Amino acid sequence: QVQLVESGGGLVQAGGSLRLSCAASGRTFSSYAMSWFRQAPGKVREFVAAISWSGDLTSEADSVKGRFTISRDNAKNTVYLQMNSLKSEDTAVYYCAAKRSLRFRPGIPWDEYDYWGQGTQVTVSS
């Protein structure tokens, strides 16, 4: 069992930055590929970024490429999402998700992930 707790969301002006964190419980965190998803009101949940269990492989959605960076620290059981040059369209609830896998498959559907956090709100004012 893995529990995920996101933090770091908030209100920021367009062009600003935020760093989200997702702290995981459990001793097998390094066995999980991790991803960030987001969901805006009235929209479907969408993939943002993913990182392999070792941290050596990453993937980002085209909409955030060059602005967002995913990373992880397995010693701290934490995955991060550094968000720069934020835009109003980045406003959403951001969720981290865990998939037990040694294979890196960033394109899998959101409903194939094993565990989810409760989400953290990011609001970008224009």
Could you characterize the architecture of this molecule?
- The chain is built from no helices and eleven strands.
- The protein has 126 residues and is mainly β.
- Strand 5 (46-51) and strand 6 form a beta hairpin.
- Helix content is 0%, strand content 48%.
- The relative contact order is 0.32.
Strand content: over 45%
Please tell me what the overall shape is.
globular
Give the N-to-C terminal Cα separation: 40 Å
Contiguous uncertain segments of 5+ residues: none
Number of helices: 0
Q: State the order of secondary-structure elements, H for helix, E for strand.
A: EEEEEEEEEEE
Mean pLDDT figure = 95
**How helical, in percent, are the residues?**
under 10%
* Helix-and-strand structural type: mainly beta
Number of strands: 11
What's the Cα radius of gyration? Answer: 13 Å
Instruction: Please summarize the sheet with the most strands.
Output: 7 strands, mixed
